[in-house]
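--- STAGE predict ---
source: upstream dedup step, 1 unique chain passed
mode: sequence only
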Amino acid sequence: MAAAEEAEAATALAALLGPAAGAAARAGAAEAALSLSGSAAGRRLLAGQPRLLEALLALAAGPGAEPARSARRCLLNVSAEAAARGALLPALPALVPLVPAGPVCGLLANLSRERGGARAVLRALGSRWDALLEALAQPRPPPELGPLLCNLSQVPEGRRRLLDRSRCAVQRLLPFTQYPHSAEHRRGIVGALRNCCFEHEHHEWLLSEAVDILPFLLLPLAGPEDLPEHDMERLPPDLQYLPQDKQREEEPDIRRMLLEAVMLLTATGPGRRRVRAMGTYVVLRELHGWERHPGVRAACERLLQVLIGDEPPPGMENLLEVNVPEEVEQQLQRLDREEEEQRWWEEDREQEWDRERDREPQGSPR
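--- STAGE serialize ---
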């Protein structure tokens, strides 16, 4: 489709999404836009049409449950394209009141992938931050909530909000390290906890009984091994005598982030002593024998070296104060973005294959 034809089609679709169109026309146009956003080419087309994005935003924030739902999911898909984020960020005041609706959380998660976007979303959230925390108490929190909290925690302002002791925010995150209903939500929560561990001045509190973060990080890495009694006694109660059907975290990237979080907690001398005292070595020893993913295995080996190695020389006792954390943090965030983009690419490819199969004539020769 030529650029002129694309612009004309986008103008017509925007008109059908507007308040002057009838309810049926708006619903149909929203469905058409949602369908179009299901492919990378469609998302790029929509991202390049500001008037169409404005119409979708107005519909997403307006009345009419079904058209609004389609518009929100369409915008969620489109926001995966970097080209659309600049046009969507000014609409934050209209989007924030819709939190914690799942598609809106996903849209804000995409808008906050970069640090500048994360800061803009945090500023816009204001008091709606509490709505995000309250959504964690739902029986099934929106799966997009985890990635949003993870992206917001990439900047110090976001970490400070999660580490606000008066709101018990971190404690609300901990049970989701083993959340069985959504790997997306679980991945985001673990990423947020990992990011919070960059704040070394909070390590003592995080490892204390007030939070007790370490068992929540280690339990997904533990398996059903029958350990000797002397090893079992070294472990926190929650990690002792696990059932024979206990399964380790199935997603390699989540296992990696859990190991990175524990590694960050060993950045200070008191943290290292606390992590060692809680039997972490036993869990990692068994994980290392089980792990087959090379990247996760390497992360496990690095952490084991810290636990069994000598203490750093004087002046380097706090590993997060030797000009390493900024580079490490940026590298971890880059890996997270690359993995997320890879998942998007794989989903697009699967959708293209599905469409190809649908178009294939029945009974055609192979």
